[in-house]
Amino acid sequence: MKPLLAQALARSERMVGRQVAGEYILVPLVGRGADLDSIFNLNRIGAFVWERLDGRTPGSAIVDAMVHRFAVDRETAEADYAQFVGQLQTIGAIGAVQGAGPKT
């Protein structure tokens, strides 16, 4: 899990996240339209993480922010982060950024 925390991950250009009627959703884009059968609903922690996957911020900094914002212990935050980004990678919503480092 530690190498994952060192990586900066970026949102795919083929996926958009939006808050609609109090819900945060991810919508995969296909061509000019959306694949409506593949809309993903995020909880508030998922939305928090999604917004920080900017291709510059390493996972460790996102986990630090999770610990601070949600008053969760670091071990739980790391496990939740790893599980969530694993799911995002599986659906092609994010990818690793080569040569990316922490934000300055």
Task: Describe the secondary-structure layout.
Layout: H1 2-6, E1 8-11, E2 15-20, E3 23-30, E4 33-34, E5 40-42, H2 44-52, E6 54-58, H3 59-70, H4 74-90, E7 94-96
Antiparallel strand pairs: 1-6, 1-7, 2-3, 3-4, 3-5
Helix pairs in contact: 3-4
Write a concise synopsis of the structure shown.
The strands form two sheets. Strands 2, 3, 4 and 5 form a four-stranded antiparallel sheet that branches. The protein is built from four helices and seven strands; from the N terminus they run H-E-E-E-E-E-H-E-H-H-E. 41% of the residues lie in helices and 30% in strands.
Approximate shape: globular
The SSE string, one letter per element, is: HEEEEEHEHHE
Cα-atom radius of gyration: 14 Å
Question: For the terminal residues, how far apart are their CA atoms?
Answer: 24 Å
Task: Kindly report the CATH topology.
Answer: Outer Surface Protein A, domain 3
Number of strands: 7
Low-confidence stretches: 100-104
- The helix content is 40-55%
